[in-house]
Design goal:
By secondary structure, the chain is α+β, with helices and mostly antiparallel strands. It has two domains: about 120 residues, Schlafen, AAA domain (Methyltransferase, Cobalt-precorrin-4 Transmethylase, Domain 2, 2-Layer Sandwich), CATH 3.30.950; about 55 residues. It has five helices and eight strands, in the order H-E-H-E-H-E-E-E-E-E-E-H-H. The strands form two sheets. A four-stranded mixed β-sheet has the order 1-2-5-4, sandwiched between helices. Strands 3-6-7-8 form a four-stranded antiparallel β-sheet. Strand 1, helix 2 and strand 2 form a beta-alpha-beta unit. Helix 2 crosses helix 3. The longest helix has about 40 residues. The radius of gyration is 30 Å and the shape is elongated. The relative contact order is 0.13. It comes from Coraliomargarita sinensis.
């Protein structure tokens, strides 16, 4: 991300996919935000920017260490990337989080984004998401079963093609054809 892109994001303010943090909060707070982005539509946390659009900057080494510790509290792990952007002689650290195909928990609890707010998920939302994940697993299991059946058929066909009798038939057929050709030419 370049400085121009960051300025546009700052000007637009926080929303369902953007969170600003002037300072580095506790690990559990960061974990909640990361899980909420993964459970909703993905998003980015910018450390070193105040909600008022003031660029405060952060210590990138300390920020990255706390973010990495926060990531270890998530289950399952999420797809993310850390970016460091220099703007107005200050450092902003961005954590870009992809939407997860699975429901992600932070310290055993589930979170989602509603507008610019991270909130605990309702039990109905968790149940719906879990059912959706279960259907995906069932579809995957069916697909694996079908592929296993195809592999078994192909294995049998290969075994049959490589057995002694078909090879003997091809050898005898080739010898007879060769003998006939040599008689015709000779």
């Amino acid at each position: 991300m370049n400085t121009e892109e960051l300025r546009k994001i700052i000007a637009s303010g926080e929303n369902e996919q953007v969170e600003f943090k002037a300072r580095i909060p506790k690990q559990d707070v960061i974990g909640r935000h990361l899980a909420s982005f993964a459970n909703t539509a993905g998003g980015t946390i910018f450390f070193g920017i105040q909600e008022s659009a003031h660029i405060a900057g952060v210590d990138p080494i300390r920020t990255k260490a706390i973010v990495e510790a926060s990531l270890r509290a998530l289950s399952p792990q999420i797809t993310h990337r850390l970016e460091q952007i220099e703007i107005d002689d200050k450092i902003v650290v961005a954590v870009v989080v992809d939407k997860s195909p699975e429901l992600v928990s932070a310290n055993g609890s589930y979170y989602a984004r509603s507008g610019a707010t991270t909130r605990p998920m309702k039990s109905e939302e968790i149940e719906l998401s879990m059912r959706s994940d279960a259907r995906s697993v069932m579809k995957l299991a069916d697909s694996i079963e079908q592929q296993t059946e195809i592999i078994e058929i192909l294995r049998k066909e290969l075994k049959s093609a490589n057995s002694f009798w078909p090879k003997l038939g091809w050898t005898i057929g080739g010898a007879l054809a060769g003998g006939l050709i040599s008689l015709m030419l000779g």
